[in-house]
Amino acid sequence: MSDSPRPTPYDEVPYESHPYPQTHPARLAAVATLFGLRPPPVETARVLELGCAAGGNLIPVAESFPGTTCLGVDASARQIEDGQRLVRRLGLPNLDLRRADVLELGPDLGTFDYVICHGVFSWVAPAVQEKILALCAAHLAPNGVAYVSYNTYPGWHMRGMIRDMMRFHARKFAAPADRVRQARALLDFLADSARPDGALYPALLKSELEAVRHQADHYLYHEHLEEVNEPLYFHQFVDRAGAFGLRYLGEARVGTMTAAQFPPDTEKALKLLATDQIATEQYMDFLRNRAFRETLLVHARNTPNWQVRPERVERLHVASAARPVEPPPAEPNAPAHGAEESARYRGPSGVVLATKQPLLKASMRVLSEAWPGTVPFAELVARSRQLANLTDPATADADARNLASGLVDSYLTSDLVELHGAPVSVATKAGERPAAAPSARVRAEEGRGVANRRHELVRLGDLERCLLSLLDGTRDRAALVDACATAASEGRLRLDRDGREVTDPAEVRAALSAIIDQPLAALAQQALLLPDPA
């Protein structure tokens, strides 16, 4: 570890450091469990993140699970110092952020149950890529899971061409802000000039330009203007990991592993073309023009079974953001429907589940009431059976298997169901003295994006942000109104009504008193409130 670290591009242009839900150890544990492995318990796991920036991805893990031991490593002294200040303020003894070059990390690093390397692999030199895989092999616990994200072909062929154009145009400018500004000017010029006229190239170019030009400055700078960005094909990454004794487990987004979303003829052809899971996914990358992967690795001695068995769900926690779809109005004189009536639920992406199964319908209701939190599978079965009036003990095991099978199908093919390896504990509604996690309160106070209890980045309105910063569990609604009214009088909060700003103190207080429950309810639905203490 160097005493005088060399500056990195991330010291000059810090990357926005925030949570990435798909990297959370609970998500990785769920994938490993579904594929027949026994990953370490998340609640007491040792977690390593390579390229942790300012710790935005690790801090919520350490805070939510105080039994974990978390280590974050990054070469940027500026970002590590920023993260360390927040860690000290939050008082997280189980999280250590260190400035270090990946190439300098040695055998004294320790053993970790989960290793996370997000947004690093494609953006470093080949020697560093090799070291990342070597570190995963040497420091991953016997049953541990490593996450590595990287840019892939064929999707990056077109995107890489646009990157080359931007780098060519920005090559004469030294300052990062100037380079970004010039790159954006080129993107705008290309987007305005590439008018689809039936030719393939303008159509492809315009599609890719739209994906790039709206990215944040820090993303555009590091993704497209840095010297190194080396995509590779999925099968090449698997081979390189295999050389270090690592085996492909799956993808963090499991739904991308299945061909079920393709038309039946395509799915049939894939079965003829591909002889194994790796080849199948490589062909699917060709079909999708995939540009990015989030691959999970395990030690080669651990062999995943990609034929998912429903009973594996028994060790997991379940969540669903799906909501009931209201049936169309009944026709006059239409016969009434009974218990066998089909129910429909729509997920966040618009996918709809239609089912007549009483147990599945009951489970969706239980999950809806628990959202945005999770429900342990065993509890979900018990509550769903009770709700569906399935009281015969002799059918309990069959009911559990049937429900697990339905949940797995939804998990693999849609966003209707989530599976987690550890609970997501939240308040579904604001209590008398609502509380939020300290890190969320601090981020809200600083005007930054906030990590919720589901490990997601949440952007807030002014009133929600002001309220969130106050939710330490000591204030009732009257005290929250007082504090927000003070913030408004000091110019830290603006309230509008009927298109005009409200400034009169009495009117401000009356307006806040009338609406205080609305933003509190929104914070609860955004998974930002802690469950009431037992």
Descriptors for this entry?
534 residues, alpha/beta, Rossmann fold, 43% helix, globular
Mean pLDDT across all amino acids: 90
The class by helix and strand makeup works out as alpha/beta
User: In percent, how much strand structure appears in the residues?
Assistant: 5-15%
Q: What's the N-to-C terminus distance?
A: 45 Å
Label the CATH architecture of the largest domain.
3-Layer(aba) Sandwich
Instruction: Predict the CATH topology of the largest domain.
Output: Rossmann fold
Write out the strand line-up for the largest beta sheet, numbering strands in chain order. Answer: 3-2-1-4-5-7-6
Largest sheet: 7 strands, mixed
Q: CATH top level of the largest domain?
A: Alpha Beta
Number of helices: 20
Radius of gyration: 25 Å
Q: What name goes with the CATH superfamily of the largest domain?
A: Vaccinia Virus protein VP39
Q: What is the share of helical residues?
A: 40-55%
Number of strands: 17
Low-confidence stretches: 334-338
The shape is globular
List the helices and strands and how they pair.
Elements: H1 9-12, H2 25-34, E1 46-50, H3 59-64, E2 69-74, H4 77-90, E3 95-99, E4 112-117, H5 126-139, E5 140-151, H6 155-170, H7 176-193, H8 200-213, H9 217-225, H10 234-242, E6 246-251, H11 264-273, H12 277-288, E7 292-299, E8 317-319, E9 323-324, E10 343-346, E11 352-355, H13 358-370, E12 375-376, H14 377-387, H15 396-413, E13 418-420, H16 438-446, E14 450-451, E15 457-458, H17 462-470, H18 477-489, E16 495-497, E17 500-502, H19 505-515, H20 517-525
Parallel strand pairs: 1-2, 1-4, 2-3, 4-5
Antiparallel strand pairs: 5-7, 6-7, 8-12, 8-13, 9-10, 10-11, 14-15, 16-17
Helix pairs in contact: 6-7, 7-8, 7-9, 13-14, 14-15, 16-17, 17-18, 17-20, 18-19
